[in-house]
Design goal:
Helix content is 81%, strand content 0%. It is mainly α and 183 residues long. The longest helix is centred in the first third of the chain and has 30 residues.
């Protein structure tokens, strides 16, 4: 029985990208909650958006570093076939989201930026997650649901929705990943 479980786990590792970092996700969620708090204190909307821009770069760096560390500990390569499939699924929706947000910024549609960020990031996570552990696409769909809800709410809920999505979802799913998939 142990041999069958070992074979199953080995096959899953060879086809799925398992270096998605749970603890890194939790840290990304915590920094997003702090960013939401700081952004909510800003008088001008542009200052609030700047806080979120800094948070995006910080979260990206945390995610990359945590992914590199988890793959190193597990003895997996970040350029393996499953990792490349994950990246090829993750990057296009993310790039489309960045372009859409820059377009919204250019034309002054600031309040629509938060829902678009959630929707695009959720699409990227769900798409890339198709080549990872099962919980990742679920997280992506949760981001998309919160993005749709953010469009329906009044515009002053933007920071709260960003805190719930980029903060809460990263913390919850990061904890699940850390517990079930080793760190």
């Amino acid at each position: 029985m142990d041999n069958l479980q070992f074979i199953r786990e080995t096959m899953e590792r060879s086809t799925a990208f398992t270096a998605v970092p749970g603890y890194g996700g939790i840290l990304m969620g915590v920094t997003a909650c702090v960013a939401a708090y700081i952004a909510n204190l800003q008088v001008y909307l542009v200052d609030s958006l700047t806080v979120w821009l800094v948070e995006a770069f910080l979260a990206f760096a945390i995610g990359l570093l945590a992914m590199w560390q988890k793959s190193k500990i597990a003895g997996q390569s970040l350029v393996s076939a499953p990792a490349k499939k994950f990246a090829m699924g993750f990057v296009p929706p993310l790039v489309a989201g960045v372009i859409a947000v820059l377009g919204l910024w250019k034309y002054g549609h600031y309040y629509e930026m938060a829902p678009v960020c959630m929707l695009a990031y959720g699409a990227a996570v769900a798409s890339g997650g198709a080549f990872s552990v099962r919980v990742i696409p679920v997280m992506g769909w949760c981001f998309m649901v919160l993005g749709a809800v953010a469009f329906a709410l009044p515009t002053n809920y933007g920071n709260l929705m960003m805190a719930l999505s980029f903060g809460g979802l990263h913390i919850i799913f990061g904890a699940i990943i850390a517990k079930r998939y080793g760190g």
